[in-house]
Amino acid sequence: MNNLRWMGGGLLALMLAACGKQEAEPAAPLPVLVVQPGTVAGQELAAYPGEVHAREESLLSFQVGGHLIRRHVDAGQRVRKGDVLAELDVSDYAAQASASQAQLAAAEADLVRARDDQKRYAKLAEQQLVSQSALDAQTAAFKAAQGQANAARANLAVSRNQAAYAQLRAPTDGVIASREAEAGQVVSAGQTIFTLAADGGREVLIALPESHIRDYKVGQQVQVELWNTPGQLLPGSIREIAPAADAQTRTYAARVSLAEEALKDVELGQSARVFAGAGRS
User: How far is CA 167 from CA 57, 91, 105, 159, 181, in A?
Assistant: First the structure.
């Protein structure tokens, strides 16, 4: 009897232990885009996923560094050529321009005095009242004063340009694709503040596999299908193929230009598939 009790207790303990264990929940699957070769009009085509970009994308930056005090636009905003996008604190540049203006005024005053002295010595030399060497010294002083005035004038122009460079303006019509800085930051000259996607051409960026790179060429006609309009094929052509493969993915970056009649149907950042047949022309 004791054995039976012992066996029953052991079975009960095992059952309770099994019930106490909770199975780990499986990880939620990650969404991915799967593209497989398909057939169009009886011809086998390879399909490559890509994303719509502007043909011209400019990295916009200030020509001078400083404290970013105002940002007038954000990502996704449409801008026109000449619009002010951001501004730097111009107080330091204004002070520098004032100092350069004062230096120019002093240099021009020295130039006037040197010119008058040179003219006076020239008349005295004609009357043989001063030596030729004295006249030569005054002529050299006049030329040196001219150089100082020219240098001060150039410094003033640079100072004024720097004050103007404190405003970042749109070089062309387009859309702000990304913003890389915020008001309050201290930025350096050449640091990217915005990426501007210019109006006009639109392209799909794709990656061509190394194993089939010889099957494709610049100018080759392709078809583009947007993910939000399946079955609708837009005409395009391969505009550019990178000369070297990516070191990690071993694929060649390529840009597919969309035909002008297809531009109205696409938006920046859209996902797309590019169908291309090997060696098609």
Answer: 20, 13, 27, 14, 14
Is this model's pTM higher than 0.70 or not?
no
What is the 3-state composition of the chain as percent helix, strand, coil, each rounded to the nearest 5?
A: 35, 30, 35
Range from 11-20, 140-149, 223-232 carrying the lowest mean pLDDT: 11-20
User: pLDDT by residue (tens digit) across 228-271?
Assistant: 888 889 999 999 999 999 999 999 999 999 988 878 878 888 89
Q: How many CA atoms, within 13 angstroms, populate the side-chain half-sphere of residue 38?
A: 12
Q: How many CB atoms lie within 10 A of CB 120?
A: 13
Write down the domain spans for the chain: 38-55+200-276, 56-89+167-199, 91-165
CATH code of 91-165, in short, is 1.10.287.470
Three-state DSSP state, 33? coil
Distance CA 173, CA 262 (A): 20
Per-residue pLDDT band for 3 (boundaries 50, 70, 90) equals very low
Evaluate whether 223 touches 271 at the Cβ level (below 8 Å): no
- Which CATH number does 56-89+167-199 carry? 2.40.50.100
